[in-house]
Task: inverse folding
């Protein structure tokens, strides 16, 4: 089964002329607790690192590339969300999704489910402070993230906040005209197509997006020109441009394999589920983390890709997970039944994300900072769900 396309086809619904993600409400036992659906409230787990986290958004325009996905000829435009360490810990957390994107998701959710939901369902406060100044007392490694097909980078906020709390600048990319909706400055909303595009069409576009974003971060002008106040200057000073990594989920896994194969500036990578992985022969440290169906004895494609890796490598299968558990959907499923739309497993959502955050952070700590962690040496009684593959 191609899990990259499956998530998209099941998770993206066309209603009339509007495209959005439907997290349709089901009929499970949770309904008793949520009889008044207007009271539904979502929350992400708090990061475990020592630093409070800030977040900001960056509007980037690639004037050297005509957007191959746009309905009319125009330069390729992207919205990028950054998470980073900050010294500010008292502000209200930034909204989970921008207002226009949240309204699009929520309106289609209501249409799909036939129930009323809170207007602020997807604008709940996260753990990161909007536009807080970056903690620039040190230089922080940079990690770029590419989401699954049809999804926004903020659907993975829990993972990105965790890395930021451990001293990373994390850069999540919304791939315009693939993501369900992307909100640009002054409320301009660009929505994805009614029908999803083939992964082979999107993969090189997403790879070019990722390399373009890295170019902008390396150059630094985009930060100083586009970010409010002194935030751009602070980030410019705080980025450690010699330590850059990337990770992705689903189609994002394929994207980051492409960029690591093309660009030696990426010193390490990690994939969360996704296939087909292709034929790249990578020498950078590489983590493969997926659901139990990606074990060596059940997924020869993952096994073959792993065998071709030439650098430090690790292949983990997490018992109880399914494809969408490698995102915030894993915790959403604890409150809203998403089974008609997304593949999730029986694992508790908080536990699923705790495992992923722990191993992902440990991997980048080793690959970018040289900090060894016994968790990466073999299976741990603290995490019996994690199955190390040979």
Result:
């Amino acid at each position: 089964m191609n899990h990259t396309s499956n998530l998209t086809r099941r998770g993206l619904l066309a209603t009339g002329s509007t495209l959005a993600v439907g997290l349709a409400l089901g009929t499970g036992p949770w309904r008793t607790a949520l009889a008044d659906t207007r009271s539904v409230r979502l929350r992400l787990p708090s990061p475990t690192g020592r630093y409070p986290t800030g977040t900001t958004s960056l509007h980037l325009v690639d004037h050297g590339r005509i957007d191959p996905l746009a309905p009319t000829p125009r330069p390729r435009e992207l919205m990028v969300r950054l998470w980073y360490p900050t010294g500010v810990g008292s502000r209200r957390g930034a909204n989970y999704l921008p207002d226009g994107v949240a309204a699009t998701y929520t309106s289609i959710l209501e249409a799909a489910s036939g129930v009323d939901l809170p207007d602020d369902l997807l604008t709940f406060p996260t753990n990161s402070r909007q536009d807080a100044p970056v903690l620039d007392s040190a230089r922080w490694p940079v990690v770029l993230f590419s989401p699954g097909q049809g999804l926004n980078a903020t659907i993975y906020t829990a993972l990105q906040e965790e890395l930021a709390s451990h001293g990373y600048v994390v850069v999540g990319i919304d791939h315009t005209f693939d993501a369900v909706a992307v909100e640009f400055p002054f409320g301009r909303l660009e929505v994805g197509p009614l029908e999803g595009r083939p992964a082979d069409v999107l993969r090189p576009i997403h790879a070019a997006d990722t390399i373009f974003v890295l170019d902008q971060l390396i150059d630094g002008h985009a930060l100083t020109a586009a970010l409010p106040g002194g935030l751009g200057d602070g980030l410019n000073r705080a980025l450690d441009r010699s330590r850059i990594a990337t990770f992705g989920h689903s189609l994002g896994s394929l994207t980051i394999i492409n960029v690591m194969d093309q660009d030696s500036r990426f010193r390490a990578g990690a994939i969360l589920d996704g296939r087909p992985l292709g034929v790249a022969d990578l020498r950078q440290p590489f983590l493969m983390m997926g659901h139990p169906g990606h074990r060596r004895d059940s997924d020869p494609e993952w096994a073959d890709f792993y065998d071709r890796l030439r650098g430090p490598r690790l292949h983990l299968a997490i018992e109880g997970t399914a494809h969408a558990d490698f995102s915030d959907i894993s915790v959403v499923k604890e409150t809203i039944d998403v089974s008609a739309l997304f593949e999730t497993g029986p694992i508790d959502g908080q536990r699923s994300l705790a495992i992923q955050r722990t191993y992902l952070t440990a991997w980048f700590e080793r690959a970018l900072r040289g900090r060894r962690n016994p968790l990466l040496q073999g299976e741990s009684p603290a995490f019996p769900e994690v199955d190390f593959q040979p």
In short: The domain at 3-372+380-388 is CATH 3.40.50.1820 (Rossmann fold). The chain has one domain: 3-372+380-388.
